[in-house]
Amino acid sequence: MAxxxxxxxxxxxxxxxxxxxxxxxxxxxxxxxxxxxxELLFAGTWGSVCAEGWDLAAxxxxxxxxxxxxxxxxxxxxxxxxxxxxxxxxxxxxxxxxEPALEHCILQPGHASSCxxxxxxxxxxxxxxxxxxxxxxxxxxxxxxxxxxxxWGTVCDDGWSRTNAVVVCRELGCGVARTVGDLPRGRPxxxxxxxxxxxxxxxxxxxxxxxxxxxxxxxGHHDCTHQEDIGVxxxxx
Length: 237
Fold this sequence. Notes:
The chain has helices at 2-19, 56-65, 162-172; strands spanning 25-28, 35-42, 45-49, 71-73, 88-94, 106-109, 122-125, 130-138, 141-148, 151-155, 196-199, 231-233. Helices cover 16% and strands 27% of the residues. It is α+β, with helices and mostly antiparallel strands. It contains three helices and twelve strands; from the N terminus they run H-E-E-E-H-E-E-E-E-E-E-E-H-E-E.
């Protein structure tokens, strides 16, 4: 019976690939929707992906598709998270890492007999990246704070530029960044924050879709105090 179910899933998968249909995905088996065993939905049934055909580029696509952060790691086969896995329906997933979803990657169907359930892919993505502007006149002006691993923290002003602010305002849907030339060093201030200083030496090129894609020091590493917390003022403030 298990072989028949796996065969049906493979047939459904091949039809989905041929039709270019969306392939729903989930990470299953943990408390977070961004961590767990990878499963794909075909013909109303969830199936797993063999770990040997899974890599970091594919994990980047999956985490993006799920609205999660970057992949932290790709656990090795036989990891505890794979216990109780559904039959494998994909032998290999080939992505460049830039695709918006897994159905845009090359999906190679497999069979349960070629991949045991203790060797299916599991993925750990970061929790979704968030940012906000606080202690200002509205949501489009204030002290910049970012959320990492469920904890809000500030951003140091070292190396900060208007290009960085452009990325922030665009990500928040607040229009373009305003030029604030009548303040010290041309940088708006909204008072010191508290807690972690998450980012320092942020350098954006301007085309990034999110601040987390800009170059910066390692998360939590800085030489700043909260007196250097950067603020941003956007056009829609």
